[in-house]
Please model this.
Amino acid sequence: MHILCGTCILIALHFLLRYIETGKRSDYVFQWLVFLLGFGVMESMIVYPAIAAAYTLLRARSVSSARFRCSARRSCSGFCTPGLCRTACGTYSLHFDTSLFSTLATYWKWALVHGTGSTTNS
Model:
C-alpha cells in the first residue's frame, strides 16, 4: 500500500509538472483525479497538496501558487470537518470508560504472566 501511495503522489506530481510546462487544463484535472483516487489507496495522500503548493511556490512562480494553496485548503477541509466524519460504533469505536483499566490489565497479564502472548483464557 505504501508503494502504491507513493506512486500516486509521483503520478500526480508528474501531471502538475506537465501542467506547469504546457498549461493544458487536462493535465491539471488529471493531477487532481490521481490525488482523489490516491485516497482510495491510503490517507497519507493528504500530503500531496502541500507538496504541490511548496513546489509551485519555490520553483514555478509563473503558476499561481495561490491556486494550489486554495485547492489544498478545500481538499483538506472536507476531510478534517468533524461534521462529516462518521462515528465508529461497536468493536472498532473508542471507549473511554472504566473498562479501559480491565482491558489494560488483561493485556498486561497476557504479555507478562503467560509470556507467550496467548489470547486464550486459562
Remarks:
- The mean pLDDT is 77.
- Helices lie at 2-22, 25-41, 48-58, 65-80, 99-114.
- The radius of gyration is 22 Å.
